[in-house]
Write a structure and sequence with these properties.
Blueprint: E1 28-29, H1 31-46, H2 53-73, E2 77-78, H3 80-113
Parallel strand pairs: 1-2
Helix pairs in contact: 1-2, 1-3, 2-3
Keywords: Membrane, Transmembrane, Transmembrane helix
Organism: Luedemannella helvata
Protein name: DUF4190 domain-containing protein
Length: 127
Amino acid sequence: MLEPMTETVAEPAQNETDLRHPLDPEPVRSTKAAAVLALGVAAVVTAPVVGGIIPATVGLALARQARGDLVDGRGYLTGARQLRAGVILVWIALAIAVGALVAASVVGIISLAGDANSGQDFPPTSD
């Protein structure tokens, strides 16, 4: 005959994510990722006057270092979301700065073209 099955379930002591060695360091936020975010905000604010190119360039260089640090941190260094937001802001600032440069160039060329003597390209005739 069939015997009734009895299941014994052992209670797990902890979740697998809670298992940590006592000597493991605590996760820490990356200061480079925070700096990239701050540089991205500064770049967007100053981009219309073309001053945003400098913090944007520094932000991109620092973002590369921060990304490497996050990979090397193996989960003990956090801040990937800040880093991603900062990089997006940096690229937006660069696009705004390039647009401002193009607009200023077009306005300059148009104003130089309007400074011609009376709009004539040929010498006046005597009739």
